[in-house]
Design brief:
- By secondary structure, this protein is α+β, with helices and mostly antiparallel strands.
- It has 4 domains: 90 residues; 171 residues, no CATH class; 119 residues, no CATH class; 36 residues.
- Helix content is 38%, strand content 22%.
- Strands 1-2-3-7-5-4 form a 6-stranded antiparallel beta barrel. Strands 11-12 form a two-stranded antiparallel sheet.
Length: 464
């Protein structure tokens, strides 16, 4: 059957439809590899440019489009000189595989996508809408859409797909599905950052690095799709496959540590307010949230790389850099006085240098002053218990460790040094996480819950 889901580990007989010669081969899809091996008889080489696009027709009549490919040079696999028979081959590994009823070209518009976030269902599972779907019988199912939020030229949605069989009156499986419809079409490259905005928000709320899965997208808007369905045109979405690292959490995640969830109308409203702000601030915050995802991915490893990632996270957070400690007018006045005093004492040649040093030293706050300011801003939002006062010395220590790591002189000297290093890493990650979510319009209960997130409590639980 065309457009059926591709199975991991299965080898599909196929024919390519890019060169016009119809080379046959075997296509396979694995968790860590997506590739096709093409064969040609009595030809010494399989010629063609497959870097950008290679279209295959599988034996089940699914059309598979391979994008962003790495083709091998190929060559002769088998040779029979006596009978002048040659079998050549060429393998092509792909980073993006799209399966559907027809080929997906790089220029095709992406108007609508849907996807799941594996292991993150808990975040949206306790809504009133979810309970209504649980209680409903087949044939009398309510609208399963939890929300449809317009933000930054997109409509973001979440709903509960229900399945089962008619042996039972109620659904036996209820999932969580996310979707985005774009006001202006995206392409195969530009849709990805938009999808990741939503994935990163869920990751921040749950304190775990998630990845999208079971991605579908369409050339049609929702309205156009419904017209096609009613006209019985048989249009179906394309399925998209990537090689994507997805870490299962060590234990079940729960919403008791999430700054936003959907349990009750007030929390659902706050969840949508937070999501809207998160989506609309993406231009300024994208680098910071990318570094957040890196730090979340290091939660099971203690290393110099984890520290460097946390420090880079801080560097990318808007407003977290050192600010002006003294006004320009005051700096100039102090520099002039110091320069005049130097000249009075017979150091006229050093007057400009002394003024320059003073300007450089006073222009920006020290790291100690910066961390004290950021710590205060966190406590103003989340309470004094969010991060203890002793976090500042550990943040300063993290910068010292960072210098050692950056210059290749990183070697921990015994258990005490390791504990100091670990607590410094925890301090930096806790500060960065709270700064990242600080300006979101969460409820007061959500602010308290955020302080119980593991990336925050690691610092409190780690002994001095």
């Amino acid at each position: 059957m065309a457009n059926e889901a591709l199975e991991l580990g299965y080898r599909y007989f196929c024919k390519e439809e890019t060169t016009g010669k119809g080379y046959c081969g075997m296509f396979h899809l694995e968790a860590d590899d997506m590739a096709v091996e093409l064969y040609a008889f009595d030809e010494r080489h399989i010629r063609g440019r497959f870097d950008d696009l290679l279209v295959l027709r599988l034996a089940n009549n699914t059309i598979v489009s391979l994008h962003n490919n790495i083709p091998s040079s190929g060559g002769i696999r088998h040779m029979d000189l006596e009978n002048q028979r040659f079998t050549s081959y060429r393998s092509v590994r792909s980073n993006v595989v799209i399966a559907g009823d027809n080929a997906w070209l790089p220029s095709d518009p992406v108007r609508r996508i849907s996807f799941s976030i594996e292991h993150a269902e808990e975040l949206l599972r306790y809504s009133d809408k979810y309970e209504a779907v649980v209680e409903a019988e087949f044939g009398d199912m309510p609208d399963s859409t939890l929300f449809a939020l317009k933000a930054d030229g997109m409509t973001l949605k979440a709903w509960y797909p229900a399945s089962g069989d008619f042996t039972f009156k109620h659904a036996t499986h209820i999932g969580v599905r996310y979707g985005i419809e774009f006001d202006e079409p995206r392409n195969l490259t530009s849709y990805m950052p938009e999808m990741l905005r939503l994935v990163h928000f869920v990751s921040a709320a749950m304190g775990h690095r998630f990845a999208p899965s079971d991605i579908h997208f369409s050339r049609l808007t929702d309205a156009e799709y419904m017209v096609a369905v009613e006209a019985r045109q048989g249009y179906r979405e394309h399925r998209v496959h990537y090689i994507w690292v997805s870490d299962a959490p060590k234990s079940n995640l729960w919403i008791g540590s999430s700054f936003a969830h959907v349990r009750g109308k007030a929390e659902l409203t706050a969840f949508l307010d937070c999501l809207k702000v998160w989506i609309e601030r993406d231009v300024a915050w994208r680098s910071a949230t990318n570094m957040m995802m890196g730090s979340l991915g290091f939660q099971r490893v203690m290393s110099g790389e984890r520290l460097m990632t946390a420090c880079r996270w801080l560097e990318e957070i808007p407003g977290a850099d050192s600010t002006m400690a003294v006004s320009n007018d005051d700096i100039n006045a102090i520099a002039e006085l110091a320069g005049a005093e130097a000249e009075k004492r017979g150091h006229k040649d050093y007057r400009s240098r002394i003024a320059g040093v003073i300007r450089g030293q006073l222009k920006k706050e020290s790291n100690g002053e910066r961390f004290a300011r950021l710590h205060k801003s966190v406590c103003d939002k989340f309470g004094n218990e969010a991060l203890e006062d002793n976090v500042v010395p550990y943040l300063l220590r993290a910068m010292t460790f960072r210098g050692r790591v950056a210059h290749g002189h990183f070697e921990l000297d015994g258990e005490a040094d390791y504990k100091s290093f670990a607590k410094s890493v925890y301090a930096m990650e806790a500060l960065c996480y709270l700064l990242t979510i600080r300006d979101l319009p969460m409820t007061s209960e959500g602010a308290w819950r955020a302080t119980t997130q593991q990336i925050v409590t690691n610092f409190r639980r780690c002994p001095d």
